[in-house]
């Protein structure tokens, strides 16, 4: 039995509230169970120097957690003068994931920055950030297309992410914190709406796993990301 009482292949309740902030070109508050992430997308008419003049667009991301997103207060990274290694790794992951679903030629020579701020954490913050980040990106691109600044839709496929793992010897979908903290195997699966893989992060946290178990986790991930893609499409119409 899972601590939450969910079935092995059952996601936590997911909601996506769009237009959550006033100024960003695209924004949403995504809730995956008790993990809540504010995602905003900002359009800028500039690109990093290494692609300037190529006609290619760029999508990047930043990630952070509020001090009381967890059960004990964390020090703001700004107060220490630098970001932690975990933060840098996650925001690079979010940027890579979102770019995989973007036609950068169609986007044109502009940059969209997706900011993901964790208001409350209960496991799966990077997955929720990617899923909500795509919705914010979709809304921002919708504005570009409505204004006529982009002629061809640069978002070729939704991008979403979900965690899967081995908990109490069983493969489970969408780990919350009690499961994540005790899972023998933990993985994050990032996929497109058409079921193609973008990135898989898998690690043994206390026990090794077999190829068969890996396949079971993959099947769960496909189920979860298909459900998330439908929610993304509905939220960003």
Automatic annotation (TrEMBL):
Positions with a binding annotation for phosphate: 86, 124-126
Presence of keyword Disulfide bond: no
GO MF terms, alphabetically ordered: 3'-5'-RNA exonuclease activity; tRNA binding; tRNA nucleotidyltransferase activity
Enzyme Commission code: 2.7.7.56
Entries under CDD domains matching the protein: RNase_PH_bact
Pfam families hit by this protein: RNase_PH, RNase_PH_C
GO biological process, one term: rRNA catabolic process
Keywords: Nucleotidyltransferase, RNA-binding, rRNA processing, Transferase, tRNA processing, tRNA-binding
Sequence ranges assigned to domain Exoribonuclease phosphorolytic in this UniProt record: 10-140, 157-224
Catalytic activity: tRNA(n+1) + phosphate = tRNA(n) + a ribonucleoside 5'-diphosphate
Enzyme class: transferase
Family (UniProt): Belongs to the RNase PH family.
Subunit structure: Homohexameric ring arranged as a trimer of dimers.
Function as written in the Swiss-Prot or TrEMBL entry: Phosphorolytic 3'-5' exoribonuclease that plays an important role in tRNA 3'-end maturation. Removes nucleotide residues following the 3'-CCA terminus of tRNAs; can also add nucleotides to the ends of RNA molecules by using nucleoside diphosphates as substrates, but this may not be physiologically important. Probably plays a role in initiation of 16S rRNA degradation (leading to ribosome degradation) during starvation.
Name of the protein: Ribonuclease PH
The species this protein was found in: Leisingera caerulea
The encoding gene: rph
